[in-house]
C-alpha cells in the first residue's frame, strides 16, 4: 500500500538559513545552498543583476549586496527575486524543464493564506509547473521519522516551533512559534566577542601568507564592501565558532557556576586566538530558561550586557520544554497521551551539544506524571537529518503511489482559482 | 578340534567363494544411456522416482538467452482517482500500459450518513435548537473533507461558530442516529451505541484532572494504596489466628493437634493416622515434631508434673493418656499466648483512651482561653502515621463481640461472621479514629 511511484517530482524546501532542493525519492537533498541572493549595485549596466549561485556570492567582490529571499518568519516577500532564484537553481543544477516537473513546496508551520495564494499564482502563471503541492514543515518532518501523529519541536535558524501533528494534519490552533533560534545565539556570541575586544574580520579583510614557519596576517582595506556583504561573511565565521563551542549545560544554569565550565580555545580565521568560558553555556541556556533568567545570571556576574526581550514573541518564552507542554495542553485531551510519547526534535538548532539530552531530562518533570514522555531525534546525528527533515518528508510524500492523486494541478487551478489550494493542500 | 577349526575356516572359504560368484553374477553390462558414475551408484536398478526434466536455468543456457526483456517506457498515465485529467509521467512496462493505475484503488472514502433537504426538514431541524441548517451542512462538508476525524475538523472549523469537539460529535452522531432510525437501518453501530454527550464532557473533565496531578499527589496515592494493602494483610493474619483459637477452645471437635492427618467426620476414638506397624515407645519419646520453644515449654510442664516420658511403659492405654495430656498442654499454651496478646492490646487502648481524654480536656480549656494560648504546650493528637503497625482488634469488630469471644460456646458463632464485614468495619474504625482529631489537626478527611 505504501509502495513508491516515481514521477520525478521536485521537492523545494525553503528555510531561513538554507534552501534544500532535490528529487522526490531521495533521502537527502541534492542541492543545499544558503537562502540568499546577491544583487550587484555598482554603476553600469550590470546594476540590479541577481546572482543566485552560492559560490558566486562567496566570491570576493565590492558593491555587492546580499539579501535573504525569505523574511525572518520564512515567508517569501519578493516573489520576483524568488522566482529568479528558483528557476536559476533548477535549470543550472538540475537541468530541468519546469513545465514537466511536479513541484512539492514546503512552507512554515504558521498558516499564511496570502502567501500561499501568491506562491500558487506565481508558480502556475510564471513558471508553468504542471502541478504542485504545499506541505507544512512539521507534517513533513513527522513523515520523515515515520510517524503520522507526533509533536514536532522544530528549532531552526530564526524560530522555534512546537507543532502537534495528528494523523498527518497539523493542528493550527495548538501550534506555537517563538522568534528565537540559532541566529539568536550567533548574534549574542558575536556581541560577546566584540565586548571582549575581539573583532571578527570577514575573509576578505585580511591576507594570510605562509612565511617559513610563521603565518603572516596583514589587514586589507574594506572600502567598497557593502554592510550586508560583510554581515553575510561574518555570520559564516560565527556560525562555525558557535557550532564548535556552544554547549547546553546538563542542569539549569542557575544551579551551576559559570566559572566552573570548561573553557574552550578557539582560533578565528585571521589568526586571533582566545578562550570562551561560561558564556558558551549561558547563551544556549535561553532555550531552556527564557530570557529573564539569563538576564538575572548576567546581573549576578556583574556584566552589563543584557538580552533584549522587547520582542513580543519572546516574552512568553520560558524554554522549549514549556513550549512543548503549552502546545500539547491546547490540544484535545484524548490525543495528549500519544503526543507525549511521540515528541520529535528537529531543526539545526537542536544539534547544539547537550540540547536533546537536556530536553529529555527537563520534559518529564513538567509533563503529567502518569504519561510516558519520549523525545526522539535523528539517530545518526547527521546535519541533513536535522536541517533537512522536511525535505526528507517531502521526498517520501512526493514519491508515494497513493499521493499522486493529491497534486493540485494546473487544470484545477484554472477551473477553481488559487483559493482551491486551501482545499487541496490542507 | 582341528576338525572344528577346519570346518570353520572352510566355511569362511565357502562364503568367500560364494561372494566371488555372486559378484561375477552382478557384473552386468552398463546400458548405454546411463552414465558410468550413475551406474556404479545404482547398479543398474532404476530409481524409484523419476528425475525431473532439467529446467532451462540449469541446462538450457540457450533457452535463457531467448527470453525477451520487458520494455519499460517513460509514459504519461491516467490516474482514475483524480478529478481532472492531469497526466504525470512514470516508468511503466510497455506490456502493462493499458492497466488501470494500481494506486487508484487506495482512494477510499468514509461513507457518511448523508441527508437531503427533505430529510433535514422532517427529522433534523428540530433535533437541536442550537444548530441551523447552514451550520449543519458546513459540518457535513468538513466531515467529508477530513474523514470524520473530529479533532482535525474542530481545529479547522470556522472560529465564528465556537463549537467544542463534543458538540460537533454530538450533532453529527445524533443526526446520523435519527436518520438511520427513520430509514430503518437499526443495525448500524451509531444506533446501537449512541454518542453520550454528558458522559464525554465528564470523562474529559476527569481526564484533565488526572493529567494535572502533581508528583506529590501521585506519591500520596501510592502510599495510601500500599497502606491499605498492609492493613488487609494484617487483618487476614489476625483472622487466621482467631480461627485457630476458636478451634482450640472448641471442645466438640476432636482437633487432635498431634495427629497430622485430620479425619473428615471429626469423630473421636480413631485409629492413629499412621499406617503400618510402629513402635509405641517411639511415639512417646520422639512424637510429632514441634518447634523448639513449645517442646521446651512442654518439658518444663512435664517436670512440674514429675512426668518423665522416657520412663513410661508404652502400652496402649498409656499412650492414649499421654497423647491426651499433650493435647491439653498444647491447648493451654496457646490459650496463654492469646491471653497475653489481649492483655497487651488492652493496655495500649487504655493509653490511647487516656490521651484522648487529656486532649479533650485541653481543647475545652483552649476554647475559653485567648487565641495566643493555643500554641503553648497543647498536646495535639498525632495524625495517623502511615506505617503504623498495630491493628487494634476492638476497632476491627463490634465491641460486644470481644466479650463473647471469651466464651467458647459462642466462639463458633463469632467465627462464622463474614471476614469482609470485618475488613470494612476495620477501615471504618480507622476513619472514626482519624475523625477524632478534633479542631487542632489539619488533616483532610479522605
Automatic annotation (TrEMBL), chain A:
Leader peptide range in chain numbering: none
Gene3D superfamilies in alphabetical order: 3.30.420.40, Actin, Chain A, domain 4
Catalytic activity: ATP + H2O = ADP + phosphate + H(+)
SUPFAM superfamilies: Actin-like ATPase domain (SSF53067)
Coiled coil: none
UniProt xrefs under SMART domains: ACTIN
Family stated for the protein in its record: Belongs to the actin family.
PANTHER family associated with the record: ACTIN (PTHR11937)
Protein name per Swiss-Prot or TrEMBL: Actin
Organism of this sequence: Euplotes crassus
UniProtKB/TrEMBL annotation, chain B:
One GO term describing the cellular component: NuA4 histone acetyltransferase complex
Protein origin, superkingdom: Eukaryota
InterPro entries: DAMP1_SANT-like, Swc4/Dmap1
Gene3D superfamilies: Homeodomain-like (1.10.10.60)
First-listed, main subcellular location of the protein, grouped into a coarse class: nucleus
PANTHER family recorded: DNA METHYLTRANSFERASE 1-ASSOCIATED PROTEIN 1, DNA METHYLTRANSFERASE 1-ASSOCIATED PROTEIN 1 FAMILY MEMBER
Name of this chain's protein: dAMP1 SANT/Myb-like domain-containing protein
Annotated organism of origin: Euplotes crassus
